[in-house]
Amino acid sequence: MNEMRSIRIGNSMREVAVALDEAANWIEPLQVSAKAQYFLSLAIEELATNWIKYGCRDTGAQSMTFDLGIRDGRLTLTATDGGLPFNPMDAPVPSTSLPLEERDTGGLGILLLRKMADEMSYEHREGMNILTLEKSLH
User: Fold this and answer.
1) Please, which residues have CB within 8 angstroms of residue 104's CB and are 6 or more apart in sequence?
2) CB neighbours of 27 closer than 8 A, spacing ≥ 6?
3) Structural domain span for residue 123
4) Contacts within 8 Å (CB) and 24+ apart, 114-120
5) Which of 39, 61, 108, 126 matches a 20 to 30 Å C-alpha distance to 32?
């Protein structure tokens, strides 16, 4: 199986739902595991939301692209945006041992992606954040 799809969204929260729908419509007929489908949805929602809330340089129109692929039993998602440089692998690990009211906000979604992905790589090239996540389909 060698399938690919590219999804481009603007910097508004309503476009996150559009990306999630497009990704679900792409992956559902490919008959991959529910675990891989969940990972794809979580990754798109978390990465797009963080980009919109924290990464956009200004309020003008900007875009983020998700390149999706399935090859050799692996799901690959590459997220590319021109927002502020941010390497999620360098993000501090939030404390999960403190009571909720004592924790800093944020970081749990990125932590979950880091734990769920089989591989994760980041580069900042020509003003673009490029994050690639891979997950086995098995």
Assistant:
1) 94, 95
2) 36, 37, 40, 68, 70, 75
3) 2-136
4) 114/88, 114/89, 116/39, 116/42, 117/39, 117/43, 118/74, 120/88, 120/89
5) 108
Collapsing DSSP states into helix, strand and coil, what is residue 69? strand
Count how many domains the chain has: 1
Report the amino acid identity of residue 128: M
pLDDT tens for 1-16 read 679 999 999 999 999 9
* pTM of the full structure: 0.88
| Nearest Cα to Cα of residue 90 among 43, 129, 53, 34 | 129
CA–CA dist 6, 20 (Å, integer): 12
CB 81, CB 62: distance < 8 Å: yes
* Helical residues (DSSP H) of 58-133, grouped into ranges: 108-116
Tens of pLDDT, residue by residue over 121-134, are: 999 999 999 999 99
Amino acid at 15: E
Q: What letter does residue 126 receive in the DSSP assignment?
A: T
Domain with 75 in it: what CATH number?
Answer: 3.30.565.10
Cβ distance 56 to 130 under 8 Å? Answer: no
